[in-house]
């Protein structure tokens, strides 16, 4: 069985860069020379592990609080700067520029020195007829190049979805040294998309589609499916309205083709149980394509447990009423059989009286609501309840988060559990495919013979949770957007989806709502009220480049900033 890779909380210093150690590896001596670093096989391997460490931290769930889906309970949370519209080129709490470009620099350093790794000592130590260690090392050196190409593509995509076109660099320039950036131009967004796709294509020629014969290749490393998924996501974004308006040439058909390539691998399937994707064993799910393991931690629980539990810290990210209202109501006949579904409606007396009954099952897997049982405790978010206002650090929306939060953790005893963030999963691939196919060919056409229509793909996702299938007349861009949010909420998708759809002024420049709950005998009265107004200008679809970078390079700032 392949060794599982875990993220440690330890810090390493490598190439004079301090950062989190991504993989379970030994420390690298900070004072080794570059020659020693890349010629020494073990050091070269650890240099690759170091590059993995620049992948974004998925469990910064405050990203969701920058959307209409969530609110941060802590009034000092950085999301407040986004939501009140005061962020700019001088103050951007989500400025990923330095991290991503340092990751790119480390990738370029490795690629520049990739042929220096000396593995002859492994061959020279062989004294039996078993030379597998030598062949494994040869393959590992080759595969590391593919991993680094993928990681470089990932960092570029992370930049492009924020800033648009950025400079393409094939030399290991130093982001902190202005002289190394002199005369470096900013490439167009279309250049960048083509470049990311080319990096993925190169990586796909190196990483085998079947890693079965390479049992030594650690779980958690880049796979062929991950490479294809990154390429497909890049093309999906490039075909979307915001990117097209900025000059990309990719089409919905291009995106559909790339997504079909992932599906046609027949490597991934939907997990039978939706909640498994966010539990302690999710890394073993056949749905997960690329992930980051965090080992045993309890910070997610410490931040997000309902406050009835001791040792919560008041840093919860809580679903808004806007998000909760998106989960459909199941329609049942007199025998309790599901016959259809409909939108939730507060003006419907039955819905208003019992708002959490007969809802899309994904709601209970994502949201803790009044009356939910959480860790053997009934959660009360009504006024004066065990987890409701006006208690200190209580949710301001009337809800807590369930997705990613492991109820088995005991914060008093200080227990913890494994957490793994999913960067790509098959459920997203199917919804990406549905969107690309619908926009390219319509709901039910399959002119390329892929064997799956847009309608087929979206219904596969719904049927996993026993939601009624949509019909062809029900599928449109709006229904696709709706399905993405209820399926992928709190998975770092909403912030970027709304931007690429160029719908930020519709969803992010509008109030978010809470539910106020009052006990009324044995029942409750639910009232929806405004929580706060949010501000989002059209220019905010693209992040501003930090002013010190503009000053250093002389580039033109993004429009409006």
CATH topology type of the domain at 1-56 and 96-185? Serine Threonine Protein Phosphatase 5, Tetratricopeptide repeat
Going by CATH, the architecture of the domain at 1-56 and 96-185 would be Alpha Horseshoe
Residue stretches low in confidence (pLDDT < 50, at least 5 long) are 1-28
How would you describe the shape?
Answer: globular
Alpha carbon gyration radius:
24 Å
User: Would you count the extended β strands for me?
Assistant: 14
What percent of residues are in strands? 5-15%
Q: What can be said about the biggest beta sheet? A: 2 strands, antiparallel
Strand order of the largest sheet: 1-2
Mean pLDDT: 92
How far apart the termini lie comes to 52 Å
Structural class per helix/strand content? alpha+beta
CATH class annotation of the domain at 1-56 and 96-185: Mainly Alpha
With helices defined by DSSP (H or I, 4 residues minimum), what is the helix count?
20
Which percent bin holds the helix content? 25-40%
Quaternary state reads: single chain
Quick recap:
This protein is α+β, with helices and mostly antiparallel strands and 561 residues long. The chain has 20 helices and 14 strands.
How does this structure look, described?
- The chain starts with 10 loop residues before the first strand and ends in an 8-residue tail after the last helix.
- It has helices at 34-39, 41-52, 79-83, 97-113, 120-124, 132-163, 189-204, 224-239, 241-245, 252-263, 299-304, 321-324, 349-353, 361-366, 426-441, 454-464, 477-488, 494-500, 504-507, 547-553; strands at residues 11-14, 17-20, 70-72, 288-297, 317-319, 329-332, 338-342, 367-368, 373-374, 377-378, 400-401, 417-425, 512-520, 523-532.
- With 561 residues, it is of the alpha+beta class.
- Helix 7 runs antiparallel to helix 8 and helix 15 (426-441) packs antiparallel against helix 17 (477-488).
- The chain has a domain at 1-56 and 96-185: Serine Threonine Protein Phosphatase 5, Tetratricopeptide repeat (Alpha Horseshoe).
- The strands form seven sheets. The protein has a two-stranded antiparallel ribbon. The chain has a two-stranded antiparallel ribbon with strand order 3-5.
- It has 20 helices and 14 strands.
